[in-house]
Amino acid sequence: MLAKRMFWFFSAFAIFAVLLAPLSFSSYVKVVEPYTAVMHQNGSIYLGNIGPGQSFYIVISPNTTSSSGKLVGLGWNKLVVTGLNGWVVENSSLYSSAPSVQITPPSYTSFGVYNFNVTAINIGNYSKIGNLTFKAYINVTSKVFSFNASPSIANSGIGVPAYINVEINNTGVSDNPFVISVSGLPGLNESDIVIAQHGTSKSFMFPIYGYTPGTWHASLRISSLTSPSIYETKNITLIVKSSMENELLALGKGTLIYPVFYAPAYAVQYFIGLLFKGH
User: Fold this and answer.
1) How many other C-beta atoms can be found within 10 angstroms of the C-beta atom of residue 127?
2) pLDDT in the model for residue 244
3) Position 224 in a domain
4) What is the bridge-based pairing of β-strands 231-241 and 214-224?
5) pLDDT at position 259, please?
6) Is residue 73 located within the same domain as residue 44?
């Protein structure tokens, strides 16, 4: 009985001692880009996908805590990346309100997962929190986006634009622009430079033109502006009709704006348009 009482006494004492012991705190780094994460000393983080030649940013908050748990509002004054030989690395400036590093793998970088060290620095250890280093991983690949295009079959008049809705899903961590272009159509079609930020999908209306009547099978291409070897294509069809044919067919679908006694004439013209269509 005495032994049992002693066991419960020391168990209760141990729990009480733990509760009274001072809490242990450590500094941390809050990553805010390319996505949010909290990093501790010697931790690791997987950043995602990047294409050769594309740039991406690592951005952190300057805030952290001291060993006593006190908030340090400007603890991290500089951010530095090491261990990426041959890559372009632009470390942050001193005392930035949001320390960041820009990283760009060369356009000839082989596909695969690369790792490097990221160090948040308290200049001169002024806040007595030292430096904090964690390891980051990035996957270099051509699979950094996907896209949809609609409609796949469009109609237009000669030199009249038909609009294709292009939705780009940027699955990588770069915000570098994309280029929308088309090939296989008669006449000049200009490309367009657009931005779909990392981790988002965005739609763009892209005009295509045909300057010769006929059915034209074209290729719509989306590529990275900074890495042209990264691209995806989709097939689209543009049916180009003469202006007269389009206007006559439109009569059968539009609203009469002239007196009603012109209706028989409209009907005849619409019938002529159907004959055009049949040919």
Assistant:
1) 18
2) 61
3) yes
4) antiparallel
5) 44
6) yes
pLDDT at 62: 95
Q: Could you give the C-alpha distances from 184 to 50, 206, 210, 218, 238, in angstroms and in order?
A: 30, 15, 10, 4, 10
List the one residue out of 149, 144, 142, 145 whose CA is nearest residue 235: 149
3-state secondary structure of 22: coil
d(CA 87, CA 143) in angstroms, rounded, equals 20
Judgement on whether residues 124 and 161 belong to the same structural domain of the protein:
no
> Tokens for 13?
């004492």
Given a contact cutoff of 8 angstroms between Cβ atoms, the answer to whether 178 and 196 are in contact is yes
How far is Cα 272 from Cα 249, in angstroms, rounded to an integer?
8
Gyration radius (Cα) of the chain, Å = 31
Burial of 70 from C-beta contacts in 10 A (0-12 / 13-18 / 19+): exposed
Mean pLDDT of the chain: 84
Rounded to whole angstroms, how far apart are CA atoms 256 and 250? Answer: 11
Cα end-to-end span (Å), the chain = 107
Residues in the chain where the model's pLDDT stays below 50: 1-24, 249-251, 253-263, 265-266, 270, 279
| Residue-level pLDDT at 100 | 96
Q: Is the domain of 235 the same as that of 251?
A: no
Tokens of 196: 């779909």
pLDDT of residue 264: 53
Phi first, then psi: give them for residue 123, nearest 5 degrees.
Answer: -55, 125
Which residue shows structure tokens 């679908």?
A: 253
**Residue carrying structure tokens 């996907």:** 146
Task: Answer yes or no: is 3 within a domain.
Answer: no
Q: Are 185 and 209 in contact (CB under 8 A)?
A: yes
Q: How many CA atoms lie within 13 A of 179 on its CB side?
A: 13
